[in-house]
Design a protein that fits this description.
The chain has 448 residues and is α/β, with parallel strands linked by helices. It contains 17 helices and 15 strands. The longest helix has 17 residues. The structure holds N~2~-(3-carboxypropanoyl)-L-arginine.
Length: 448
């Protein structure tokens, strides 16, 4: 135990972009499919996200922010054969292929749980923090994220003595990787060596599955990440998500389970083979001398349907600086009587989860993104933490970002606005100013 270092969990939340809209793009994600074409409110979405960041900071947690990506993404429209001035490209795409334009305008990078998989240095054999941006190949609108994500992560986590950046796992066919949404970690403290859990939906090479929705995460992609992050196989577990949960709308494992510290908070139907999965986790934790704590919610208490509509498990399971474990939940988990009753009873019964805090994240929730989707966890020890400064938040920066949102974001956005050159001009002006606020330099393609 003597070589355990002090470490912190940072949450890097995605700043909601000015093009936040309900495109109905995400198959298998019931909220996205159900709200397709409705009017969004980008300003409220971004402010709700910033308020969540503030709340965590006020609880004593370290908080970062990742910038929105450039959308509509004109370089990709040009690759699709649209040409001329930016205005011509945009207008012609809107006229000839509005569905393509909608895909290339999505603000989905806000869900940074899908940005990358990150392994802390305490777990890696070369003692570096490893980053692999997610290829997100399952959904076209998200498959264009990884290059810019990698660029931003390299900018923030720049010191090569501490940080190792990898390219996304090669995409194609069913080799999907959805990042930290399908990844969890058990450890007695943030700084101690831990066990990493990779949850996959299927093999990339599986055929003829009789399924309602197809799993997005391939086992082979998870294995590639574990290898390149130089994890010890004895402390790495691969488990299959239950097809039942995927078919019910749990398109990522973080819709039905979440880990932190020694705790796994999960729905009874999360895993295909729970007994095997838990035996593997127990054995791996034993090699490091600690026991995991499995907190189950039974299907009798909360059905899969309730879990998915309330996003009970898409909560942030956090440990406050005074050592208390609790949940940051969406308001929907408060408003559902079954999930609220379960939480109240667990807390009253002195379970491992000691508090529940509910937040209004309705704009993101309507696209299937709860508190856990909106954040990317990065565990850093003291020297690693001392090496970063960009995109780390304090109250002054949050206020600055709120003012920036108020100045640039629309109150209402419809799909048809995506084809309007005036709107494109507004977006570029907003992103241009943001790169100054976050000291990122000319990071966007339109600035280069
Ligand atoms: O990939 N929604 C996202 C939500 C991601 C949630 N992330 C986690 N569970 N970690 C997705 O399905 C909807 C976009 C639209 O329909 O406009 C969307 O991409």
């Amino acid at each position: 135990m003597s070589n355990i270092v002090n470490a912190f969990e940072y949450n890097f939340d995605g700043l909601v972009g000015p093009t936040h809209n309900y495109g109905g793009l995400a198959i298998g994600n019931l909220a996205s499919m159900g709200n397709s074409g409705t009017i969004s409110n980008p300003r409220a979405a971004a402010l709700q996200g910033l308020q969540k960041m503030r709340t965590l900071m006020e609880m004593g947690l370290r908080q970062g922010v990742l910038p929105p990506h450039e959308r509509p993404f004109l370089p990709r429209l040009r690759q699709h054969g649209f040409s001329g001035s930016d205005e011509q490209v945009l207008q012609s795409a809107w006229k000839n292929d509005p569905a393509l334009l909608c895909n290339l305008s999505s603000a989905a990078p806000m869900w940074t749980a899908n940005a990358a998989t990150i392994s802390p240095s305490a777990d890696s054999q070369d003692k570096k923090v490893h980053f692999t941006p997610a290829n997100l190949t399952a959904m076209y609108h998200r498959s264009i994220e990884h290059e810019f994500t990698g660029r931003v992560l390299r900018e923030i986590f720049a010191d090569e003595n501490y940080f190792a950046h990898h390219k996304a796992v090669p995409a194609g066919g069913k080799m999907g990787d959805e990042g930290a949404a399908n990844h969890g970690r058990f450890a007695p403290s943030h700084g101690a060596a831990g066990v990493q859990l990779f949850v996959y939906g299927r093999s990339a090479f599986e055929k003829n599955l009789d399924v309602h929705f197809e799993g997005r995460q391939a086992l082979e992609a998870s294995q590639a990440i574990a290898r390149q992050h130089r994890l010890n196989p004895a402390q790495t577990v691969f488990a299959r998500q239950s097809q039942k949960a995927i078919d019910a709308g749990a398109f990522h494992n973080d819709v039905v389970s979440v880990t932190n510290g020694r705790v796994l908070f999960y729905h009874q139907h999360s895993f295909e083979n729970t007994a095997q999965c838990f035996a593997d986790i127990r054995r791996a934790c034993e090699t490091l001398g600690f026991e995991p704590d499995f907190v189950e919610v039974s299907a009798d208490a909360v059905s899969l349907e309730d879990a998915i509509s309330s996003y009970l498990f898409n909560s942030q399971l956090i440990t406050t600086p005074n050592g208390e474990t609790g949940l940051i939940l969406p308001q929907e988990a408060h408003d559902n009587p079954r999930t609220k009753a379960w939480l109240d009873a667990h807390i009253a019964g002195n379970g491992p989860i000691r508090f529940a805090k509910y937040l209004d994240l309705k704009q993101s929730m309507r696209n299937g993104g709860g508190p856990a989707c909106l954040r990317l966890r990065v565990v850093l020890n003291e020297s690693e933490a001392a090496s970063i400064s960009k995109c780390v938040l304090d109250e002054a920066l949050i206020i600055r970002l709120e003012q920036w949102v108020e100045k640039h974001y629309r109150d209402q956005l419809e799909i048809k606005d995506l084809g309007d050159p005036e709107f494109l001009g507004e977006v570029y002006a907003a992103l241009e100013e943001l790169t100054d606020i976050l000291s990122l330099g000319a990071i966007y393609d339109f600035q280069r």
